[in-house]
Design goal:
This protein is an alpha/beta fold and about 200 residues long. It has helices spanning about 5-10, 20-30, 75-90, 110-125, 140-150, 155-160, 180-200, and strands at about 40, 50-55, 70, 95-100, 135-140, 160-165.
C-alpha cells in the first residue's frame, strides 16, 4: 500500500461485485459517527472462505497515515507478518477477509463494553459471507469477541471451524522466557498452516 499506484487501484475497486457488500456494510458502521476502515478488494470480499480477526484497526488503516483499508499489504510490521504467514501456508489474500474484534479505529485495547457493542457487527458480517468455512482468531481480544458472538448466536460454534493463535503483532512475543516467545511464534506458523490445510480440503 506504500505504492501510490497499487493504493489507487485498490481504492478504485471498493465497489466491485465481490467487495461492494462489505464496503456498504462498513459505510453503515461509519454512519454512527465512528470511523472504520474499508477492506481492500485484494481480499475475498463476500467470497471469503476464511475470516481473520485481530483486535482493532491500526494506524496504517487510517486515511491520514495509511491506506484507509484493512489489508495484509499495509505498510506495517503486523500486516507484513500476516502476509508472510499466509504465503507460507499457501493461503491467497483472496481466500480471506481481514477483520477486527472492535472494527472502529481507537488504537488501544477495547473495553469490555466496547467489545459487547461490537458483537452484533461481527455476527452481521459473517451473514454476508456464504462461503465462510474457517475463523482465525489472532489474539485474546479476537478470541473473546468470538465467545461473545457465540453466546448471541450459538449456531456459529457448530457450523464454522475456529482456529485460535497469538496476535501477529510484536507485543504477542513480549515475554522474558525465550522458550515461550519461540513457542508463540511457532504456534502462529502452525495455526496458519492448519487454516491452509482446511481451506485446501
Amino acid at each position: 500500500m506504500a505504492d501510490p499506484d497499487f493504493l489507487a487501484e485498490q481504492r478504485s475497486l471498493l465497489n466491485d461485485e465481490r467487495t461492494a457488500p462489505i464496503t456498504e456494510f462498513i459505510k453503515d458502521l461509519r454512519a454512527g459517527g465512528k470511523w472504520a476502515p474499508f477492506v481492500a478488494p485484494m481480499h475475498g470480499g463476500v467470497e471469503s472462505r476464511m475470516i481473520s480477526i485481530l483486535r482493532d484497526p491500526g494506524p496504517k488503516t487510517t486515511d491520514e497515515d495509511g491506506s484507509g483499508m484493512l489489508s495484509i499489504e499495509n505498510d506495517d510490521p503486523t500486516a507484513e507478518l500476516q502476509a508472510e504467514l499466509a504465503d507460507a501456508a499457501g493461503i491467497r489474500a483472496s481466500d480471506f477477509l481481514p477483520w477486527n474484534a472492535y472494527p472502529w479505529f481507537i488504537d488501544r485495547q477495547p473495553t469490555g463494553a466496547e467489545m459487547r457493542e461490537a458483537t452484533p457487527t461481527l455476527i452481521e458480517l459473517i451473514s454476508l459471507l456464504p462461503q465462510l468455512k474457517v475463523v482465525l482468531l489472532q489474539g485474546k481480544d479476537a478470541q473473546q469477541a468470538w465467545k461473545l458472538a457465540v453466546v448471541v448466536q450459538p449456531s456459529l460454534a457448530t457450523r464454522l471451524t475456529v482456529v485460535p493463535t497469538f496476535h501477529p503483532g510484536r507485543q504477542a512475543l513480549f515475554h522474558p522466557d525465550l522458550a515461550v516467545r519461540e513457542q508463540r511464534a511457532a504456534d502462529r506458523i502452525a495455526q496458519w498452516k492448519k487454516v491452509g490445510e482446511l481451506l485446501a480440503e
